Amino acid sequence: MKILIVGGGGREHALAWKCAQSPRAREVFVAPGNAGTALEPKVRNVGIAADDIDALLEFAAREQIGLTLVGPEGPLVAGIVDRFAAAGRPCFGPTQAAARLEGSKAFTKDFLGRHRIPTAGYAAFDRDSFDPAYVRAQRLPVVIKADGLAAGKGVVICETHESAIDAAMHMLDGGFGDAGRTIVVEEFLRGEEVSFIVMAGGESVLPLATSQDHKRRDDGDLGPNTGGMGAYSPAPIVTPELHARIMREVIEPTLNGLRADGNPYLGFLYAGLMIAADGTPNVLEFNCRFGDPEAQPVLMRLQSDLIDLCEAALAGRLDRIDARWDPRAALGVVMAAGGYPDSFRKGDPISGLDAAARLPGKVFHAGTRMDGPDGAPVVTAGGRVLCAVGLGGTVAAAQAQAYDLVHAIHWNLVQYRRDIGYRAIARERI
Ligand code: AMP
């Protein structure tokens, strides 16, 4: 069978690499892919942007693609799955209506409330209804969120009422384009953040191996928010009791609620949760896709055939599948371009990729491209450039293997955190 992966980041490199391992995959195409997918055996890049749904559909028909997996949220929120379904092409991902769980925070807060799924208290406003007095009446800090997709920048945690009102006005006045025409004012939650990712299809659901990411740029979880600077799996904070509670109180009511509302969910579903002191799993957000960089360590541990899992989801029989996982831990360290997450340089040659390829573990590419035809040097082309993933009997051992890869690779002004996994490693020591 021929497979198409839509997207060009580290998550898509990991999806393509995993699909290519399947004996069922004749060829894996990635649109648009990166230098890492270009160099992967059985994998070929296609020069189509991830949001060019017309061209993707035409390509899928021409190549008789048997299964398409969509990585990023943009094409999902734009309705790529509906378009593929209408053309009779199997596509693993949620419909446009179901993807609103990520595409609109106001929709999601209303959904969570109606289905009694735990989340922070909130109110939604547009330009006409905005009431600064409501903000002033909230306890500090208070959280201001743009309703729509804002590339991870649409959440502001405000320590004063005046800065909260300023942030709200900035969004409502178009500072985030249409994404901020509606805003959510939300109660600030304390606790420990956990991400929880499942595959869902029909009435069936398969929780993936647990994982945890680090969103802040700097060591000690300090500095600005990013798309994610590293991740590991398993996440020891998700005990069997917490796992059962998240399934019962969040995942199952969410999937049942979507089905009851007429929007059954197919695809990866990512819940960002804040675990309160009493163990309540409060929903911070949903993503309608696999996490990046969580996908890289999680897929390193997946031993089952990913194509089989996607087809089981499409047929609604995931609950009959027992996914096999490598018992070892996996840990990924993101190597980013200098300046990220603000403006960053592009086009710097990356050295040491060959040396890293001879070491244990795996380097997934994200913002990379080949500076010319085959054999040309690989250069940086995005904020997050690589994700170096190690495996080990403990998170500490996986971390050591990942940093051996990181230390083999270099480019001008490369930056990465030196402490990915530190919380899990501290728990292991106890
Ligand atoms: P979101 O995109 O909604 O997940 O928000 C991005 C990040 O902001 C989260 O990963 C949290 O670290 C933080 N955050 C969002 N909402 C809240 C909240 N209600 N209370 C505390 N932190 C929050």
Topology overview:
Layout (H helix, E strand, L loop, with lengths): L1 E6 L2 H11 L6 E6 L2 H4 L4 E3 L7 H10 L4 E4 L2 H5 L2 H7 L4 E2 L7 H4 L1 H10 L7 E5 L5 H5 L5 E5 L8 E4 L2 H15 L6 E6 L4 E10 L2 E4 L4 E7 L3 E12 L6 H21 L6 E9 L5 E7 L7 H7 L4 H9 L14 E8 L16 H5 L4 E4 L2 E3 L7 E3 L3 E9 L2 H14 L13 H8 L1
Parallel strand pairs: 1-2, 1-4, 2-3, 4-5
Antiparallel strand pairs: 6-9, 7-8, 7-9, 10-11, 10-14, 12-13, 13-16, 14-15, 16-20, 17-20, 18-19
Helix pairs in contact: 1-11
The structure holds adenosine monophosphate (AMP).
Rg is 21 Å
Gap between N and C termini: 47 Å
Number of strands: 20
Helix content: 25-40%
* SS content category: alpha+beta
Q: Number of helix segments? A: 15
Mean of all residue-level pLDDT scores? 96
Distinct ligand kinds: adenosine monophosphate
The strands making up the biggest β-sheet line up spatially as: 3-2-1-4-5
Low-confidence sequence ranges: none
* Strand residue content: 25-35%
Sheet with most strands:
5 strands, parallel
The multimeric state of the shown protein is single chain
Instruction: Name the overall outline.
Output: globular
